[in-house]
Hints:
Blueprint: H1 2-20, H2 25-34, H3 39-49, H4 51-60, H5 69-92, H6 95-128, H7 136-151, H8 156-167, H9 172-197, H10 202-222, H11 228-246
Amino acid sequence: MLQALGILAAGCAAGALNVVVGSGTLITFPVVLAFGYAPVVANVSNTIGLVPGSMAGAFGYRRELAGQGRRVRTLACATAAGAATGATLLLTLPPAAFKAIVPAFIGVALILVLAQPRLGALLRRRREHADERIGAATLLAIYGAGVYGGYFGAAQGILLMAILGLALDDALQRLNACKNVLAGLANLLSGAIFALVAHVAWPVVGLIAAGSVAGAMLGARYGRRLPAAPLRALIVAVGIVAIVRLL
């Protein structure tokens, strides 16, 4: 019962974080890992479990999505291709490769979390005199973020926000809404692949899914009011625990 409550609470926290910032995987993945699940099984189950929360978060930002249909459709194609590539890599590479690669991924994710204030300031300055460009470079960058999301995905949202903020001239909340759709699509597509061919801990999926939906709805409604510094500190602390656990 305590294990179930812990996973449910982690799913709730991850759902809220994914909507507001990104990095929810840095909460759920270490928790599932700490309860004794193999790293690949923990990652696969976590990805599938976060899909409902991602969809709920995108729905919560539906007003900010108004008028972005064409943009989202274009970027979604690159995201889908990247997520399929990342999921395929996860399933074809040996588990030892995942154990070796993921600590580095988490380290990069933590750097992005810590750098987020500076990235936000850079994006605000850049947006003041930027023209919208969805060219080959932007699509390639979104594809790369999709590969990362399909393979592991921690801090995928922050990576997407950096790309969108540099490429598109729009308000940050509207970019955040677009980010939620793209990150949710990466989770959905890779999760569907995992559900068909990978070993999944379905009780974990159910608990994370239930928690992430509740967290996403709360995050969409109240997340903008949460103090950034304590959230950032919590994410970094949990990420360090995950790295130690994997090593």
